[in-house]
């Protein structure tokens, strides 16, 4: 009778040990998973962007190469004035410098940049428009 | 606005910019392309405003800045004569360059606005990207100002060759690299401004030794630089619209430089090293020796062209300087009425920038399907009765074909000497930009018409109408 009780107890202890082991592996797995998640999150926020932006930059260089070769030579001057206008999209940086500025120096630099880029945006697109409106077909 | 949505909107405006350039593949789609570009720019600006949510004071400042730029830009765009397009484009490049410097300075003094850290603890990567953008921007700024001054005649087109200039340039280049390293490690504001100063000086020194004849390459090259500067800033700002645009503009300028170099048979390196071309030296009548020139009058020219089946016109920058394109277009319509086929042949480097001559002719109401690239019509000179060269010189010089010692040897030229008669409208017998005598003037089938291009063509029109 006593023997039986002892054996029962031992068996239960064994079972308890097994469950503890299972729990341990479970926790270990959880920890491993959370590490992976953290790593993924880390990659998404800081490590990857440069490569990501570089990839877009390189692709855009190729796109630019093919698109510009398809431009007819008669329109090379408008091409230059329009590329000039679109490169003034740097105005985005100037607006950010003013809107989110934390120092008066940044506001001033941003404002100068904004005026310069704005001259270019309006001047560039309008002069391109003026040139393109002159290209006519034989009537 | 969520960051991811802003990123998406910037991507859209980048794609619209690609479509804007795509539209330029044909004159009929080009205007729509330009509108697409405007929409892309509008999206980029609006997205930034919505994303940044400026305070009322900042918003007023932003609107004010945009308005000042809009007024100046619109007035310039409306007033500028088409002959001055090269100067205008050079001036615009300088603005992009300076704007890049200003935005980088803004990022340095207020890094939190660009999500790149705080003053004193900006990420190294952002510092490197920023300094690349600022160095190229500063070079573009002063380089374009010099190009503008040369093209606008405010400065001599002659190459200014400093002694030891290559060593000075290399020294400045090394200095810029050293300052960039110091700046990236220490985030010292002094180092930043030293990068700016050294790059500004480098921009001047790179462009002053380049002669007037090579200006089309310089303008294209600066176009390319302004793109790379924008892309550099785009990396700092992690802004897709800027990165895509920078890449587009950078490759566009590089391709145009390549086309211009090929059109002159000059290597890009030799253009950069400079010292070639400048003001033309004109041989006086005494230098002619026993060579004789056949001189004709406007009446002779009118007679020849009226009785021709086909006339090919080879215009050069001299035509634009004399403002003769309008009366030339009038002459062509009179000739066409009497059944003469007339074509224009455009040399790749005619004018002062890529495609300049096409714009000038378009302004004078010349239909674009009358205007041909030189290589497309060059074989037709053999079946042409009259080749009419107006204000061009070097691009017709046969020494580019035959004389290995000539500085322009290998440059593609218009084969005007294949035509039955070659009419040469010029002010004098002076040599062209490259400073080389043109043997074509002394050939039997060449007839020289001396005088101002506009006056002479007016006289021809008068005599054609009689």
Give a quick precis of the structure:
The complex is a heterodimer of chains A (139) and B (466). Chain A is mainly alpha-helical. Chain A has four helices and no strands.
General description of the model:
- Chain A: InterPro entries: NADP_transhyd_a_C (IPR024605).
- Chain A: It is a multi-pass membrane protein.
- Chain A: It catalyses: NAD(+) + NADPH + H(+)(in) = NADH + NADP(+) + H(+)(out).
- Chain A: It is found in: Cell inner membrane.
- The complex is a heterodimer of chains A (139) and B (466).
- Chain A is built from 4 helices and no strands.
- Chain A is mainly α.
- The termini of chain A are far apart.
- About 6% of the residues of chain A have low confidence.
- Chain B folds into 2 domains: 195 residues, no CATH class; 181 residues, TPP-binding domain (Rossmann fold, 3-Layer(aba) Sandwich).
- Chain B is built from 17 helices and 6 strands.
- In chain B, helix 4 packs antiparallel against helix 5, helix 5 runs antiparallel to helix 6 and helix 11 crosses helix 17.
- About 2% of the residues of chain B have low confidence.
- Chains A and B meet through helix 1, helix 2, helix 3 and helix 4 of A and helix 1, helix 2, helix 3, helix 4 and helix 8 of B.
């Amino acid at each position: 009778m006593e023997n039986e009780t002892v054996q029962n107890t031992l068996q239960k202890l064994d079972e308890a040990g097994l469950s503890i082991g299972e729990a341990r592996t479970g926790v270990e797995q959880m920890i491993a998973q959370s590490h992976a998640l953290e790593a993924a999150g880390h990659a998404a926020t800081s490590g990857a962007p440069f490569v990501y932006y570089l990839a877009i930059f390189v692709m855009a260089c190729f796109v630019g190469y093919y698109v510009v070769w398809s431009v007819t030579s008669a329109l090379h001057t408008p091409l230059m004035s329009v590329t000039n206008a679109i490169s003034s999209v740097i105005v985005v940086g100037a607006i950010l410098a003013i809107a989110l500025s934390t120092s008066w120096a940044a506001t001033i630099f941003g404002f100068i940049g904004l005026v310069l880029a704005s001259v270019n945006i309006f001047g560039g697109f309008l002069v391109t428009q003026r040139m393109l409106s002159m290209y006519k077909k034989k009537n | 606005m969520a960051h991811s949505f802003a990123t998406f909107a910037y991507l859209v405006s980048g794609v619209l910019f690609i479509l804007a350039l795509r539209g330029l593949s044909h004159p009929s789609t080009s205007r729509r392309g330009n509108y697409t570009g405007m929409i892309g720019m509008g999206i980029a600006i609006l997205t930034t405003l919505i994303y940044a949510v400026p305070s009322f004071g900042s918003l007023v400042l932003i609107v004010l800045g945009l308005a000042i730029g809009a007024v100046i830009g619109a007035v310039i765009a409306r007033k500028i004569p088409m002959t001055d397009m090269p100067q205008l484009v050079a001036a615009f490049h300088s603005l992009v360059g300076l704007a890049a410097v200003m935005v980088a300075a803004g990022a340095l003094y207020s890094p939190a606005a660009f999500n790149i850290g705080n003053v004193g603890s900006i990420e190294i990567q952002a510092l490197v990207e920023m300094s690349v953008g600022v160095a190229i921007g500063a070079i573009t700024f002063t380089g374009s100002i010099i190009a503008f001054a040369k093209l606008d005649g405010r400065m001599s087109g002659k190459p200014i060759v400093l002694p030891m200039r290559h060593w000075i340039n290399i020294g400045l280049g090394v200095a810029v690299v050293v300052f960039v390293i110091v700046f990236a490690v220490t985030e010292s504001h002094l180092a930043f401004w030293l990068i700016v100063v050294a790059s500004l000086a480098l921009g001047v020194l790179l462009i002053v030794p380049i002669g007037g004849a090579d200006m089309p390459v310089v303008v294209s090259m600066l176009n390319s630089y302004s793109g790379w500067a924008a892309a550099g800033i785009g990396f700092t700002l992690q802004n897709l619209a800027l990165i895509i645009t920078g890449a587009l503009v950078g490759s566009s300028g590089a391709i145009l430089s390549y086309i211009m170099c090929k059109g002159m048979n000059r290597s890009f390196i030799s253009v950069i090293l400079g010292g070639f071309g400048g003001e033309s030296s004109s041989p006086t009548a005494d230098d002619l020796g026993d060579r004789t020139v056949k001189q004709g009058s406007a009446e002779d020219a009118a007679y020849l062209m009226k009785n021709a089946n086909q006339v090919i016109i080879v215009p050069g920058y001299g035509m634009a300087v004399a403002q003769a394109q309008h009366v030339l277009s009038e002459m062509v319509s009179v000739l066409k009425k009497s059944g003469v086929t007339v074509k224009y042949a455009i040399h790749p480097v005619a004018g002062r920038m890529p495609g300049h001559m096409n714009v000038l002719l378009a302004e004078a109401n010349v239909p674009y399907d009358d205007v041909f690239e030189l290589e497309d019509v060059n074989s037709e000179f053999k079946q042409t009765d009259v080749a009419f060269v107006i204000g061009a010189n070097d691009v017709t010089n046969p020494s580019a074909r035959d004389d290995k010692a000539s500085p322009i040897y290998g440059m593609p030229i218009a084969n005007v000497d294949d035509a039955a008669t070659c009419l040469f409208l010029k002010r004098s017998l002076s040599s062209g930009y490259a400073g080389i005598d043109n043997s074509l003037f002394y050939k039997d089938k060449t007839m020289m018409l001396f005088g101002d291009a506009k006056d002479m063509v007016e006289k021809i029109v008068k005599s054609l109408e009689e």
